[in-house]
Each structure stands twice: as C-alpha cells, then as structure tokens.
Amino acid sequence: MDRSQELYASGDQNLEANLIDHEVTESSSLPETRNFKRWLRVSIYVIFVLSCQPLATILGRLYYENGGKSTYVVTLLQLIGFPVLVLFRFFSQIRQPKSADTNFNQSPSFTTLASVYMCTGLLVSAYASLSAIGLLYLPVSTFSLILASQLAFTAFFSYFLNSQKFTPFIVNSLFLLTVSSALLVVNTEPQETSNVSRLQYVVGFICTIGASAGIGLLLSLIQLLFRKVFKKHTSSAVMDLAIYQSLVASCVVLIGLFASGEWKTLPSEMRNYKLGQVSYVVTLASAAISWQVYTVGLVGLIFESSSVFSNSITAVGLPIVPVIAVIVFHDKMEASKIFSIILAIWGFLSFVYQHYLDEKMSKTCHANPVEEDIQT
C-alpha cells in the first residue's frame, strides 16, 4: 500500500513539474511574440518615414519646377491629408481590446486639450510654411541637408524643456550638423536653382533653418506634453494630437490662401502646368498622400519608441533626397555637398548612439528592481 502511495505521489510531482515547465515555456514565449510584433510594426513605420518623406519632398519640388508658384499649396500638401490619420486611428482601435480602466481623473480638460491642439497646430502651420518657402528658393538637395539640422534643434530645445543632458555624443552631433549646414550656405552658389537671386537664396536658407527649428521645437514640446499634460502615453492620445493639430494648421493655411487671393490663380496655374493638367492633379494628390503616410510612420514611431527616435529616423532619410535630386533634377553634387552629407550622417549616428545608451541604461534600471524582487 505504501508502495502505491509513493508511486501516486511521484506521479503527481512529475505531473506538477510538467505543468510548471509548460507554463514557464508559454509565459516566456509570449514576450518573444510580442517583441517580434512590436519590431515588425517599428520596421513598417520606419519604411513609411524613409520612403514617403523623400518622395513628398521631390514631388513638392517637381510642382515648383513645372510652373507651380503657390507656397500655400505646398504648405497645404503637408497637412490636408489628415483624414488618412482618422482612418488609421479607427482601424487601430478595432484591433485593440477595450481598456477596463475607468479612471478619468488624469484626463486633461477640454479647455486644456483645445489649447494644446491650437498651439501645436499654429506651430505646425508655421514650420510647414517656412519649409515651403525654403523649397521654392533652394535646390532640393541643399534644402534637405539643411533640414537635417532639426536633430540639433531637438536636442537644444529638449535641454530646456525636457532636461536633456548634453553628453559628448550629443555635443558632437550638434557640432557636426551645424558645420554640415554652414558648408552649404558658404560654398553653394544660388545659380543652381533657376531664376533665384542671391537675396532669395538667403531667404530660402533662413526659412529652411526656421522650419528645422520649428520641427525640433514641436517634437520637444510633444515630449513635454505627454509627460506633463496627457500623463498617459496611449495610441489614442498620440493620434488625436496628430489629427487635431493638422486640422488646426490646415484651417490656418486655408485662411491665408483665401485671404491673399492666391486661390484665384490656381485654375490658370493648372492649365499652364508644363506636364499637363492630369499630372498637376496627380502630383499634388501624391504629395498629400505621401506626407500623411509619412505622418502615420512618424506618429507610430513616437508611440512605439520616442519622439527622439522618430526624429532620428526622419533625419537619416533626409540625405537620401540629394541622391534622388541628382537623378531627377540634375542637381550638382559638389564636394561641399558630399562632405555635408557625410557630416550629417555622422552627426545622426552620434545622436542615435546616445539614444541607444539611454535606452540601455533605462532597461538596466528597470531590470534591477525586478531581479531584487525575484531574489527576495
């Protein structure tokens, strides 16, 4: 009888051990699956950013090269496709399970949200207008390389708004990106762009620097808002901010378009477009869609990682544009531009490496308390 009890006890212990091993295997496989899905989403968003930003920039320059003159139109192209974000938000909510959290105390008030959307929308309309002017007066290769300085502005504004530390890698990145932009204004001749005077070239350079500063300020401000105002870093909050700020910015630009009377010239501009009326519509529609797919990728990277990482991916896509511009618009690839591209990429890598060190340190800090609890 004792022998049989021992066998039953041994069998129960083996069964229990197998069940525990099975549960451990399942629990360990779940994080791997989730991690794979997360990196798949990140990869898709990176492809959106790296492909659509250069495409949208090239299409904007194509509009100018073939008879387009309205900076309001080019500005609006960056904003008017925000209904795509509404669809993206709708379908992303369908896939996600409904949250059981009913704590609304941390949700900001309507007045606070309206103020946030208005301020960020005005900032978006300002930098979009500046970038449209810069693209009008500068070669697209020069424009994109100057715009890469947004990384430096992001670090600068984050120092004041988000207590960003100026590590040696950040300082190195700031220096390289500053030198990269300075090379272009010193060594590039305005004759590269047809019918552009020296004054217009300088105006284009200043406006592009202003647009770059506006993007850096916006991304730093978004990071501050999610820490101080929104509290919770949810996909709904990220998407709502992107949608409503684009709505406000679109309304501001449309008011400027109609107030200036420039809308009256658009029908004749379409008729006189060098590539034809159909190409005019296709160019503008493609640019608007490209900008919004880029925005989807940018917003997705902010949610999956951080605004710093999304800005880094944006910056690495900018040196792609000069290479395309040489093929499409026959821009001159001088030694100063090649050196500027090398410095921009070097500055980007320095910035990303510091981000990698910050992420690694953050994971280590989170892992240590868990290990102590397990040991306890």
From TrEMBL:
Pfam families: PUNUT. The chain crosses the membrane at residues 42-64, 70-91, 112-137, 143-162, 169-187, 199-226, 238-258, 278-301, 308-329, 335-353. One of its GO terms (molecular function) is purine nucleoside transmembrane transporter activity. The keyword Transmembrane helix applies. It comes from the Eukaryota. Keywords: Membrane, Transmembrane, Transmembrane helix, Transport. GO terms for cellular component: membrane. It is a multi-pass membrane protein. The keyword ATP-binding does not apply. Its main location: membrane. It is found in: Membrane. Belongs to the purine permeases (TC 2.A.7.14) family. PANTHER family: OS09G0467300 PROTEIN-RELATED (PTHR31376), PURINE PERMEASE 22-RELATED (PTHR31376:SF57). This is Probable purine permease. It comes from Eutrema salsugineum.
